[in-house]
Design goal:
Layout: E1 9-13, E2 19-21, E3 28-32, H1 37-43, H2 45-62, H3 72-89, E4 97-100, E5 107-109, E6 115-118, H4 126-138, H5 147-156, H6 160-174
Helix pairs in contact: 2-6, 3-4
The structure holds zinc ion.
Length: 175
C-alpha cells in the first residue's frame, strides 16, 4: 500500500513526540504541532500495514459474529457476580461498579477501585466478560500494560491474544 493511501486521521497536540494509535480500529497519528505526518508513516510503515491487515481480518470476521441477547437485569447480575468472583481470586477489593456508554473501551478500573463497564459489553459472550473484568481488576496490581501486567494475564489466559482479537471483532460488530 502506498503511504499516501493509508487512511488515517491527524491530531495535533502540545506533545514532544509523535505517537500512533489504533484504539478503535482507525489509524490516528498524534503529532506535535508542525510535525510532518509522512515522517511517521514512513518510519513505521511495516508496523502500520501489519496492524491494518489485522484490523481488516477482524472486520471481515465481524460480519458473521453472533451477538448475545440478554436483558439489562441479566447483564448487570452477571457483571456483579463475575466481579465478585474475580476480585476474590485476585485478592483485590473493588469499590463500586458503574455502567456507562463509552466510545473507546470496553471497561476501565480507577485508582479508587471503581470498575466502569461499557454498556456494549451486554452483547458479549460470558467468557469475554470474564476476560475483560479479570483484565481490569488485574490493573489494580499493575497499572500499565507492561511485561508484569501481561504476565498476570497470561498465567490465567494462555490464549489471551486470541481473546483480544475476539474483542476487536466484537467491537466492530456492536460499536
Ligand atoms: Zn488494560
Amino acid at each position: 500500500m502506498e503511504l499516501n493511501k493509508i487512511p488515517h486521521e491527524l491530531s495535533y497536540r502540545n506533545i514532544k513526540y509523535p505517537r500512533i494509535e489504533f484504539k478503535t480500529g482507525k489509524l490516528l497519528l498524534v503529532l506535535p504541532f508542525g510535525f510532518d505526518p509522512e515522517i511517521v508513516l514512513k518510519k513505521h510503515k511495516k508496523w502500520i500495514l501489519k496492524k491494518i491487515e489485522f484490523i481488516e481480518g477482524c472486520l471481515k470476521d465481524a460480519e458473521n459474529k453472533d451477538i448475545v441477547k440478554r436483558t439489562e437485569k441479566e447483564f448487570r447480575e452477571i457483571i456483579h457476580s463475575l466481579a465478585e468472583r474475580i476480585s476474590e481470586e485476585l485478592d483485590e477489593k473493588l469499590n463500586k461498579i458503574y455502567f456507562k456508554s463509552m466510545k473507546t473501551k470496553w471497561a476501565s478500573c480507577s485508582a479508587k477501585r471503581n470498575l466502569t463497564v461499557n454498556q456494549l459489553m451486554k452483547f458479549l459472550p460470558e467468557h469475554l466478560l470474564y476476560y475483560i473484568i479479570f483484565h481490569e481488576i488485574a490493573h489494580l496490581k499493575q497499572k500499565r500494560h507492561n511485561e508484569r501486567f501481561w504476565g498476570i494475564i497470561e498465567k490465567k489466559f494462555d490464549d489471551y491474544d486470541v481473546l483480544e482479537r475476539e474483542l476487536f471483532i466484537y467491537w466492530f460488530r456492536v460499536a
